[in-house]
């Protein structure tokens, strides 16, 4: 049971002595994992005016008189988690990606988008409930940048957000999904000629995008040279605009082209082939981030199989963070079964479910290689895609990274400090250091022993406000 009391005599260190008692909080007794690989047994974290003013041992951090103290013995503290790949403009079910199954009579896409835009706080709640305190939205409509949820996140009830805005891609003309929705809600910008590319990068700069994102699927042989050159142009324009280039490219060839164009972040694994030394050299030369997204593909498969057989798939939400509106859609996949048009038989659906449980060996091997080479690796889920749910999907992603061969301590850094660095907010958050915002989480089980112990979340602190996980439950 968490104990809370007032201390009446102590000497304040780490610049807390002059702060008012009402703004002082001390977390004591827990094992503190700082996000940089360090650990402090029986540690102390002192928070003053939303920021960390001391973190260390009981000798290094004396609790000041009048501070509100929380005894967290037998608990474990880490920085708040960072999900480096999310989409505010997608729901976590197929209604947010009608390119999988278009069913306007069941889930009109414009209505879905309007609901998302009207209530982005549903995702903030789900993220905080899951222990996530910062997210990188790497693809969405203009409103993911211009609306208040992106511009007003300096609040304890919202997570840090940086958003890249609409994706630039050549694929829009051949995919019905990209043609849906009102023009002001467009998630995709074309790159069929240089003029379009110049206009679209200028648009992203104008609306305040945090990056330029390109969705670079494998081109046909006839268009390979043309589109490679156009990606190089995007990279050049992004550099001139002072924006990092982010690229979705799951093929080894395309990933190399992206890196040659100056990509600072690859938002998916290379999954078609094992990476080679040329790829590693390019990744390191760019000082680029590798975001593996190991689980999203299997979740897509599970979602489509659920629709094919008309039966719901179990939702991995250990802390009750997914809102009821999304849950209601997930537990009724049969509503979409007619729209599937028999494209997947029940037998094939069962085979797909079996396939979804298999280890993605190439992605796992590439993650190990990239990490061993010393490249930047972050934890990233692609949340918003079917069954990759905003918030709790972070657990299965970290567990997949562990299954791939990374140690829990390595994953903790990837899911905290490295994520904050990728977002460009490491000066504010991502590690437990003096001067940074008090964004941290508390667990009852040791995540160093098993990364799955992040599921034992007991408390979340965002901007110095500590709440129990039960208080953050959505349902």
Task: Give an overview of the whole structure.
By secondary structure, the protein is of the alpha/beta class. It has helices at residues 109-118, 121-129, 143-146, 148-151, 194-207, 224-241, 252-260, 277-286, 296-309, 324-330, 337-340, 346-356, 361-372, 393-404, 408-414, 417-423, 469-472, and strands at residues 3-6, 24-33, 39-48, 51-56, 68-71, 76-79, 81-86, 132-137, 160-163, 167-169, 188-190, 212-215, 245-248, 265-266, 289-290, 376-377, 440-443, 457-462, 465-468. The chain has 2 domains: 3-79 and 431-472, Urease, subunit C, domain 1, CATH 2.30.40; 81-297 and 355-423, TIM Barrel (Alpha-Beta Barrel). The strands form 3 sheets. Strands 1, 2, 3, 4, 5, 6, 17, 18 and 19 form a 9-stranded mixed β-sheet that branches. A 7-stranded parallel β-sheet has the order 11-10-12-13-14-15-16, with helices on both faces. A 3-stranded parallel β-sheet has the order 7-8-9, sandwiched between helices. α6 (224-241) packs parallel to α7 and α13 (361-372) crosses α14. The chain is globular, with a radius of gyration of 23 Å.
